[in-house]
Amino acid sequence: MHWLLIAAGLAVVAAFLAYRLKRRREEAKAYLKGVRSMISDDPDAAIEALSDAARLGSPEAVETYLALGDLFKREGDLTRAIRLHRNMLHRPGLAPGRRAEVERELADDYRRAGMLADAVEAYRTLALAGDAAAAAGLRDVLVDQKCYDEAVRVHRERCGNDPRLLAHLLAAQSRAERESGQAGALERARQAALADPTCADAQLALAEAQGPGGEGEGGAASVERALSATPEAALLAWPALSGLPSAVADGVVDRALAARPGDARLLTLRGRLRVRDGRPAEALLPLRQALEADADGEVTLALRELLREAAPPGPGELAGRHDLMAAALLRSAGLLRCKRCGGGAAVRTWRCPRCGTFDAYPG
After folding, report:
1. DSSP 8-state secondary structure symbol assigned to residue 354
2. Residue ranges of the domains in the chain?
3. Closest to 225 in 3D by CA, of 211, 205, 239
4. Contacts of 136 (CB under 8 A, 6+ apart)
5. Could you tell me the pLDDT band of residue 68, with boundaries at 50, 70 and 90?
6. Is the full-model pTM beyond 0.90?
7. φ, ψ for residue 95 (rounded to 5)?
8. Alpha carbon of 270 to those of 253, 285, 321: distances in Å?
């Protein structure tokens, strides 16, 4: 009898281990099927397979759930991503480190869904607990909300105070203050330029703030520093350049073109200055030269937008404007792609609107 009980016990243990092994194999097969579906770009099959793997409930299910959440976000299904991550937080036995990871994912879901107040609350809780990644997320959402004072404070106190990023934040704050008529825009722009003198965004914000105050020479020097520091962002110099007197602005572009002859972006600026100064017929030549010299499509996209918004052509420029528009429309031009998230944009900005990265686009 004793041996029979031992044999029965061993049989039960063997059956249990076989069952565990079978479940683990099933989960592995489902997970691998999901991975293959993602690689083959079949999101529906991937979601089904990863859901099957997660339901098996092994210790590795957290990884599977996180992979499933990433897939939901990639497909733009933020409602399901939010629901998934909320449910994960209610799971018993979730390790503290994994809980923080899921909370960060949920905060990111909120941000992508435009639920900025919820994102701020979630990120702030984690940041106060010393989570550096959450502090960076909090700073970025505060920028989305245009709460620049707090964004700068969070950056300085909790994000390592990167001077380049600080310069971008202060430049954005300067522009926001100037647009709303607040005092201190010029001082904020000066702080941005001091934080990182090589930051073209900061130099242009300083020129924009100096222009209306009659500091034309100072504004010109700031624009020249920006054009020299980051040539690929030359099109973003237009707001600062357009605030300068005609002769001063022409001199800035002429000197830049002397250093970089045939630069498509600088030729675009020259054409825009001539339009601003009431010489649209004379603008056609530099704009046509800019289109011909465009190597990456950015100028082509900019010219399409410029021509679309331009005033109706006069009798003397009708044919030339038509030819330029036709050439810009026929020329191939792809979107700018963020170096971090891959998001596309037709117009260059200092900050990627999708992921919030500054200096996001390649030259």
Report:
1. T
2. 166-173+186-230, 245-332
3. 205
4. 159
5. confident
6. no
7. -60, 145
8. 7, 10, 16
